[in-house]
Specification:
Protein name: Molybdopterin-dependent oxidoreductase
Shape: globular
Domain Aldehyde oxidase/xanthine dehydrogenase a/b hammerhead: 41-148
Oligomer: single chain
Helix content: 10-25%
Strand order of the largest sheet: 3-7-1-14-11-12-13
Number of strands: 29
InterPro entries: Ald_Oxase/Xan_DH_a/b, Ald_Oxase/Xan_DH_a/b_sf, Ald_Oxase/xanthine_DH-like, AldOxase/xan_DH_MoCoBD1, AldOxase/xan_DH_MoCoBD2, AldOxase/xan_DH_Mopterin-bd_sf
Distance between the termini: 66 Å
Mean pLDDT: 90
Pfam family, one: MoCoBD_2
Biased composition (Low complexity): 1-17
Length: 771
């Protein structure tokens, strides 16, 4: 008899009273996201759901050409259409005509003299119906002088300037060690990484509402509202306090969630018409408008001794930035700095370039720069192992970084770097069982159910990928966040402009306050630019910087709460502790509840968190450019049909350096999502742009991995070695598996086929083995 049944029988009832599940509480608990239910039930208000009285609809005219000179723009027919309220072009931009991310303003709000990529905005229309707006946009007559596009980044060095700033965005020459050093074995490789789209699930949308003071409010799914506000104000010719951004309906982000090309026309139209204006992008417009992962060309030469230890790495890295700079400088810094991977390399000579082309713009996508070079340096490690007849995992173990080692940039790794422990964990994890060669198990074939493959043609391969990423901004970026914690009537409220993009900040903020103050009910206020800035939601910065600000503010409130009690009993606040909703002293003399101590009080505090400063890379690629680093090791097991080249990822075993687990369920979900995104990079995702034109800008032509494509993901080890300079000791967890998993899959396909596999995504012909 169960305990519940026995209790029911003793009480004289027929069935047991269900015992409520304990509510997760504080750091280390799997506290569910506050918006989880709304998103799963379909009631979450996304930006596309926005509405306002007197609403007008916007549409944007985009260039059909990747490169052309604009001879004339005629908006007469569009303006005369019934229902059209405004048409704006570059002539209607009252302020700064250029904008951009990454501190570089080189991108026009609307093209004026030339278009530099397919889909560049030329004009925008506001009308009383979305169909009218689209027809009016199509009625804008643009006369083009079509020019030959520059789509090969190698040609950009010799081509005519595509932009007044020239074609070269940045060049980083890294010099470390002895240029004459050589090894007993030398391996070389040429690698190409394709263009990945962030493919946001929710439609990119926004609403602009004019204000009586001549300003405007923008309701957007922004991930960096203060930067977007400042850009908008500059373009509108307004002061920043005349522009307010309210963050609404962010469905999740693996990159810059909203392209400013969507945002800026909205405010112009609202200011011109005096009416609210809404824009909801189609999937095609989304592909044309926002940034993508940098396509990259990489040339590598590794020198190693007879034991497989790397002596020298030489590399050339060329990033295709597309038409505008965006965050390409940051991506190049990460690519060059991590070009040798998480390995000890005494001599390194790396040349890195980011150049403009007439391809679609590239920008921030999770793991930018680091992901591309990981695929190349891991392929090189496989080649070293093959040439020496050694186990690929063993070669890696002989070279891995540890805390105290020096990067090729000259920066000492001061954070925990348990790379050997991670690699050993995935290497030693039991391999999955081999599929049976029977009809009922045909679904195990790489071709899937009803696939064309034959069991006799299937080969299994095992490969490895070790990735490293930097956390927060780099090269002198001022990373700072501000948070306020208020407590009134037993309810705590957190005010912080850190946007919840799926990384779990709002959940973390609740957990921090619960832990610090012993308050169960914690609310996180909506984000807008009336709050102090918190920065962009990428590279784990909100866990570190914004979480640190929330913790400091909560501790200040804790002191305010405990000070009167400590004074009453003649002791310091350090001798009091808060746990399980109770305040107790070290000697047991004081014992009261948090609720009693808070009764009738309103407490609040504001605090900032700013990590230690970094510095730009110098002319030799040297400098302490990064606040901290995180590492991940992945072992991939794949089945390859060597006759047709189809690949099935059977299993990915993951070991990751996480610092400290703050929310187990959330951390697991983030790792699994990152790994799955990496599988897409490895096998399916490639936004094709022949002659600069985006081909098939939809989710039919762009193959995202689905649930059926996701492999078994085994998280075999989480190393909790706390980073002492980080709040809570935690590290970013999302980007590292994105960086490592494509390299691991390629390594496994290499092992299965014996082919070089030097391009991502892996094309079927690269996995075919001919007799």
């Amino acid at each position: 008899m169960s305990n519940d049944a026995a209790t029911a029988e003793a009480a004289g009832t027929d069935e047991a009273t269900p015992v409520p599940e304990p509510i997760p509480h504080g750091l280390g608990a799997s506290l569910p996201p506050a918006d989880a239910r709304a998103k799963t039930e379909g009631t979450f208000p996304y930006a596309a759901d926005l509405w306002a009285e007197g609403l007008l609809w916007a549409a944007v005219l985009r260039s059909p050409h990747p490169h052309a000179r604009i001879v004339s723009i005629d908006t007469t027919h569009a303006r005369e259409m019934p229902g059209v309220r405004a048409v704006v072009t570059h002539e209607d931009v009252p302020g700064a005509p250029l904008h951009g991310r990454g501190g570089r303003a080189d991108r026009p709000v609307f093209a004026s003299e030339a278009v530099r990529h397919h889909g560049e905005p030329i004009a925008a229309v506001a009308a009383d119906h979305p169909d009218t707006a689209r027809m009016a946009a199509a009625a804008v007559i643009v006369e083009y002088e079509v020019l030959d596009p520059v789509t090969d980044p190698e040609q950009a060095f010799e081509a005519e300037p595509l932009h007044p700033d020239g074609n070269l965005i940045r060049h980083i020459p890294l010099r470390h060690g002895d240029p004459d050093a050589t090894g007993e074995v030398v391996v070389e490789g040429l690698y190409r990484i394709g263009r990945q789209d962030p493919a946001p699930i929710g439609a990119e949308a926004g609403l602009a509402v004019p204000r009586p003071d001549g300003g405007v409010e923008l309701y957007l799914a922004s991930t960096d509202p203060h930067a977007d506000r400042d850009t908008a104000a500059s373009c509108y010719g307004l002061s920043p306090d005349q522009v307010k951004i309210v963050v609404t309906g962010v469905p999740g982000a693996t990159a810059d969630r909203e392209d400013q090309g969507f945002q800026l026309p909205l405010g112009l139209l609202a200011l011109k018409t005096g009416c609210p204006v809404k824009l909801t992008a189609t999937r095609e417009e989304s592909f044309l408008g926002h940034v993508h992962r940098h396509p990259t060309l990489l040339r590598y030469r590794h020198h190693a001794d007879a034991e497989g230890r790397v002596v020298k790495v030489e590399a050339q890295i060329l990033l295709d930035a597309g038409a505008y700079a965006d965050t390409s400088s940051d991506a190049l810094a990460a690519a060059v700095a991590f070009a040798c991977g998480p390995y000890v390399v005494p001599n390194a000579f790396i040349e890195g370039w980011a150049v403009r082309t007439n391809n679609p713009p590239s920008g921030h996508v999770r793991g930018e720069g680091a992901m591309q070079v990981c695929a190349a340096y891991e392929a090189q490690m496989d080649k070293v192992a093959k040439k020496l007849g050694l186990d690929p995992a063993e070669v890696r173990l002989r070279n891995v970084l540890a805390t105290g080692d020096v990067l090729p940039t000259g920066q000492t790794v001061t954070c925990p770097a348990p790379v050997a422990e991670l690699l050993q964990a995935v290497r030693d994890f039991p391999l999955p069982a081999l599929p049976k060669d029977t009809p009922e198990d045909e679904w195990l074939l790489p071709g899937g159910p009803e696939g064309a493959g034959e069991p006799a043609a299937v080969r299994r391969g095992v490969g490895y990928g070790i990735g490293m990423v930097h956390m927060l901004g780099a090269e002198g970026a001022d990373e700072v966040s501000t948070a306020t914690v208020k407590v009134q009537d037993g309810v705590a409220t957190v005010l912080c402009a850190a946007v919840e993009t799926g990384q779990g900040f709002t959940t973390l903020a609740r957990q921090i306050v619960q832990d610090t103050l012993g308050v169960d009910e914690v609310q996180v206020a909506p984000v807008d630019t009336d709050q102090p800035p918190a920065g962009a939601g990428c590279r784990g910065r909100h866990t570190w910087v914004s979480g640190g600000a929330v913790e400091r503010a909560a501790k200040m409130v804790r002191t305010q709460l405990l000070q009167p009690l400590a004074h009453q009993f003649g002791m310091s606040t350090e001798l009091l502790q808060i746990a399980d909703g109770k305040i107790t002293s070290y000697d047991g003399v004081l014992s009261t509840t948090v609720a009693e101590a808070l009764e009738g009080k309103e407490l609040w505090a504001t605090a900032q968190c700013r990590p230690h400063p970094t510095e730009p890379l110098d002319e030799a690629g040297q400098g302490d450019a990064f606040v901290g680093m995180a590492f991940c090791a992945i072992r991939a097991v794949v089945d390859v049909d060597i006759e047709i080249g189809s690949v099935r990822v059977v299993e990915l075993a993951v070991a990751q350096d996480v610092g400290r687990v703050l929310n187990p369920a959330q951390l697991t979900a983030r790792i699994e999502a990152g790994v799955t995104q990496g599988v897409g990079i490895a096998l399916t995702e490639n936004l094709r742009t022949p002659r600069g034109l985006i081909r098939h800008p939809d989710l039919t032509g762009y193959a995202l991995p689905t649930a059926l494509d996701a492999p078994d993901i085994r998280i075999v080890k989480l190393v909790e070695e706390r980073d002492v300079v980080a709040p809570f000791g935690a590290k970013a967890v999302s980007a590292a598996p994105v960086v490592a998993s494509p390299a691991a899959v390629a390594s496994a396909v290499r092992a299965a086929t014996g082919r070089p596999v030097n391009r991502l995504p892996i094309r079927p012909q690269a996995a075919v083995v001919t007799a």
